[in-house]
TrEMBL record, chain A:
Protein name per the record: Protein O-linked-mannose beta-1,2-N-acetylglucosaminyltransferase
Chief location category: Golgi
Domain of life: Eukaryota
Gene of this entry: Pomgnt1
Domain ILEI/PANDER, residue spans: 123-212
Record remark on domains: The stem domain mediates specific interaction with beta-linked N-acetylglucosamine moieties of O-glycosylated proteins. It also interacts with its product, N-acetyl-beta-D-glucosaminyl-(1->2)-O-alpha-D-mannosylprotein.
Cofactors named for this entry: Mn(2+)
InterPro entries: Glyco_trans_13 (IPR004139), ILEI/PANDER_dom (IPR039477), Nucleotide-diphossugar_trans (IPR029044), O-linked_mannose_GnT (IPR052463), POMGNT1_PANDER-like (IPR039474)
UniProtKB/TrEMBL annotation, chain B:
Chief localization: membrane
Pfam families reported for this sequence: FKTN_N (PF19737), LicD (PF04991)
Taxonomic lineage from the root: Eukaryota, Metazoa, Chordata, Craniata, Vertebrata
Name under which the protein is recorded: Ribitol-5-phosphate transferase
A GO BP annotation: glycoprotein metabolic process
Cellular component GO terms held in the UniProt record: Golgi membrane
LicD/FKTN/FKRP nucleotidyltransferase domain residues: 292-329
Domain Ribitol-5-phosphate transferase FKTN N-terminal: 1-278
Compartments where found: Membrane
Amino acid sequence: MDEWKPNPAVKPHKKRSWYLAWKYKLMNQRALRKLCQTGAVLFLLVTVIVNIKLILDTRRAAYEEEEESAQDYDDEMLNVEVPRHPVNNKKVLDVEVYSSRSKVYVAVDGTTVLEDEAREQGRGIHVIVLNQATGHVMAKRVFDTYSPHEDEAMVLFLNMVARGRILIFTIKDEGSFHLKETAKNVLKSLGSQVAPFLSWRDMWTFVGKKGGEVYGEKHAKSPALSTWGDPVLLKTEVHLTSVEDAECHWPDTELNRRRKRFCSKVEGYGSVCSCKDPTPIEFNPDPLKDNKVFDVPVAVIAGNRPNYLYRMLRSLLSAQGVNPQMITVFIDGYYEEPMDVVELFGLSGIQHTPISIKNARVSQHYKASLTATFNLFPDAKFAVVLEEDLDISVDFFSFLSQSIHLLEEDESLYCISAWNDQGYEHTAEDPSLLYRVETMPGLGWVLRKSLYKDELEPKWPTPEKLWDWDMWMRMPEQRKGRECIIPDISRSYHFGIVGLNMNGYFHEAYFKKHKFNTVPNVQLKNVESLRKENYETEIHRLLGEAEVLDHSENPCEDSFVPDTEGRVYVMFIKMEQEADFTTWTQLAKCLHIWDLDVRGNHKGLWRLFRKKNHFLVVGVPASPYSSKKPSSVTPIYMEPPAKEEGAVAVPAVAAAEQT
Amino acid sequence: MQKINRNVVLALLSLTSLVFLLFQLCYYKFYLSQKNGAAFSKVRGSQSGQDSTRWHVVRKFLGLISSHNIPVYLIDPLILGLVDKDIEQIRSSPGGPSPECKYFCAPRDFTTFALLDKAWKHEVGLFRTAEKMGFQWLKVINKDPRLDGMDDLSGMEIPLHYIFKLASHAIHLVVFYERSGNFLWHGPLRLKQHMDRKFVPFRKLHFGRYPGAYEKPELLLVSIDDLKVQIPKNPSSFLQEMSHSRFLECRYREARAFFQLYPDDASLDTVEFRKKAKSLLHLAALTLNNLGVKFWLSSGTCLGWYRQCNIIPHSKDVDLGIFIRDYKADIIPAFQKAGLPLKHKFGKVEDSLELSFQGEDDVKLDIFFFYEEHDHIWNGGTQAKSGKKFKYLFPKFTLCWTEFVELKVHVPCETLQYVEANYGPEWKVPVKTWDWKSSPSNVQDNGVWPVDEWDDVIQIY
């Protein structure tokens, strides 16, 4: 178009069609011809201009749009997320399983999914569960079947695994000593030929599908009692099934989608993943009337004990008056499975990069969790702090709702706790009764925001201090003489056996027989009497009506307390000064209550129940209530045991602090 | 031959140009109308003053959210602007059919609503219902800033914005979060790589270019254009607030790096000082906010925020800045009433004013007044014993909100320039000995007060 130039000098041709002839005629009319030409040129020019404008406009608009999204609305950080597991179209998995005295390992398609060569650890039968469609590891367990009862746990676990899953077994060191007939039969039913004959220090590996084929088994017999069987290495192939076959066909609801996601990732949670009648994951407990703690955030402190967390959250979400929106689970570490549990219940979870080690790690985790809780709920005046190894009573929130106003109004209170350290089956009786105590029990408690923000947070132990957070909170510098409110019958139950400061023996001795309230909607008695001054009046009234027990009898004997019900009794023990707990510790020991340190006291007074009678213990002369002692009564003194035993008891105290 | 060719060519060219021209005009018009919303295509509808598409979309949306019991409120600045003009009338006549569609029918691409995060349960059902109703929707999520300050927590990402699109209209739903300091916060709108950046013309959104901080609004249920919606009770003050709502997050990552280099002082003295400084700052903020005087963190307090997201332990005072145009004579009595006696007063309103109040136990509150010139801003200083005057120069700045020690306060948006002007390029290195007369890099001698004015411009109590 641009190169076109009018050339009037050129003559028209003669021999043309009618149209051209007509045109030729017109052309001859010079003026008209000129006009036409100019018109055409103008027209073309306009076209060109419009064209250019259009191009420019479109360009600019497009550019602006690009620029705007590039500058203002782009996430600064490029998303370099690569899909975590490339889609695996492979239908066959190569599985390698190794069993020996000092080392076990399992490799799936060349990836090591289990490797344990630590000394003095990991003895027994290691079990790995794989998803039969994806080959992902869904559960990893080790059962020390050299020790008693571990085989029962294994049977329980194997029964919970869904049909069709791939099971891998391997023994490290010794796995047969306490492997009983029942467990052997279960292994046999999975297709193992060797299991019924497994014996002392045999090495064994086995891969099979639950309720289906066997992919391989290898066994090495121990030649003599003093030696182990030769190491065995099993290499085999496992055929994957289709995803549909590996899943249950639950109705498509939001809840079931969560369930499906959970059940395709992990194993060992039993009926929550059963295809027929799975156990519910939404509980809808009755709401509480006039719930004063509905808007109080709940922080659940968790580590890597997903099965505990699962049990804990079930009981928490079943408690009346719970508000799931206020619950945040804080996981100490980047563990996947606890997060899966949190997501199963549709709660929010926060992971915490571990700082420091041991007790300090727990303590830093607590600090981060509490700070985050008050950041996330800036309106909250309180926070409920729970741990992953607690059962929560059905009336937990009802209990708090009835008592929380005290924490708000009474400056002399440090916390409200759901746990009574001295509330054992034989020493707690009245679900509607509350106490004031000078110790902080923890294990399900309410923290005041102002206490945390103004006092605790700024001077919280730093990571290099290996302190227990709860011991630190109990120190006089922090507690400043303030007290906690506790119920007679605990509203939480500590079921954790595995823990930082916890083992089976310890749990059995101090936690198993703890009383736990299961009655819903308990109406608390005379809550106002828990205020500082009122409580003194209440104690004086109680002491006034209490019958003095016969101090010539042995207080450890059952007969010390008469066979009555609903009476109030008092006894006086020797307590030279405020910190003299010699006699109390001995008494606590023989009463089989918490004796590792002093808990549950209020001004030298302990309150508990014996034979359904309220039983008061007053330390004389340190307690201000000593004046109630009739002059004829000599306070009971109990001798501490011999020195060596005392020395042993000290480390026990250090180990005793619950996490 | 040549002549005929030329004419034929000419005619053909003209013809094609004509066709092209027509096509281009059509295309151009189409393109413009698509870009400017209803600017062209809705000309027909505007005769009756109605763009029913928008009204219908808004009504559908309100139906959707009310069926899920989600309380949203209208924050669309254009509609609130219109509403504000008729606010008395709207307040006095709740309900009742309105004769014409005045507010929701102005043709626009968006209508903006706000949602309080804590007021809903993140139900997935909402989106499924929305899809059934024909909405397309987009969710913008990002990190939770309330956990950002904490070194090592990683929570789930939180939703910051939703966009529901139906036909040619879109609803922009901004999610507001409560933050420490008793205010509401909304996040910036940032698209991730995989997102459809043509979903709506994002640039035209009224919210999302920056994060914003707002007071918790009081709401009012009104009926406008036959639609029942919640609006801020006082639309004009909301709009006022919106124009100055830009929020700056503290630079937590840099603060962490700073503490790696210079570990925080964890002594009891520091804990005590920080506690006192924090409560002094809270008291000062309360007093000034009650008076309606705008202030910002200045000098050492500002440096503390910018460098370490905390109060600098060895600073020993709290520094605030106020524009002299915001000066009120009530400031001194108000502070005295709040229990903070005047410690000294230097300068006068016309020149180099500086107030200092005595807080609890030696913690001092310094208020510097800033004077605006055409190309810079300055504040003054006075040496009591010699009557010498100093001038501290700053480049021009605007004010942004931030969160500091559980308080919503202003800081200069151009914080780096502000801090550098005051402390020089080495501001990242903590300095314990600081002479306010010589250490600042922006200090200038400014003469001496005339002796006869000393009684007035140097008052020490």
